[in-house]
Design brief:
The protein starts with 11 loop residues before the first helix and ends with a strand. The longest helix is centred in the first third of the chain and has 10 residues. It is mainly beta. It is globular. The protein has two helices and 14 strands. The structure holds fe (ii) ion. The site of fe (ii) ion has 5 residues, from strand 5.
Amino acid sequence: MDHETSTGHVTRKAVLRAALAAGMAAPAVLMGVPALARTLTAGEAAPALTPECDDGDDPTPPQTEGPYFKPNSPLRTSLLESGTVGVRLTVSGYVFGLACRPIAGVLLDFWQADTNGAYDNTGFRFRGHQFTDAQGAFKLTTIVPGLYPGRTRHIHVKLQAPGRPVLTTQLYFPNEPRNNTDTIFDPRLLMTVRDTGGVREAAFDFVLNVPQTPGPTPTATATTQPPGGSWAAGTAYRAGDTATYGGPGYVCLQAHTAQAGWEPPNVPALWRLR
Ligand SMILES: [Fe+2]
């Protein structure tokens, strides 16, 4: 079904592959979801969810416990280390919910092969996690991952909005010959990539299955002041820290940076009543 239907009509996927193989920009309608969901305008249909994609290279077992799974990778936006070899690459974009509003505080855990196609399975080279900022944006600084047998070029990522399930997926590069033969490849996960003076700049927007009501962004609505207490948005709490909110005291269960909407009574996975 990937190439032609029994009636001879070329399928959507085949057209897309042909377009990609020819180095043409595939029409957005063929992509299933725009690579950049931010291009949707008000009134358009809800964006399609970013699909799952997994090839077994996942070092972290799936977990949905608490507001976040616990990645083993370091907290860092750059995977470059001294002596890192490879073509420099940045991957940036936004994470949106179902109403196409950006989501702050989304955990993104990236991992990839080095320039020779090898994963570091003992340390944390080319592994790192970060959180979307208040605008729902992320940016990864890394290198173009190398190829390894059986797969096209890809970057792994797990995403989790606070208190939501983990999405395990991959990002792909356009104009890669192996995109046509890799059975795991999904064109909905293609990044847009441009070359700027030897540095590749890639962009991709994720859409997570997070219910949202259309309207102003959370930063515009979450202006409620805490009803007294030491808890404050923007504070970096560690496990074991204590804070008061509206009278009662709470103990922090998991290190995090507090933000509006994560008040202790709202997130029992982060705060336990003393
Ligand atoms: Fe992989």
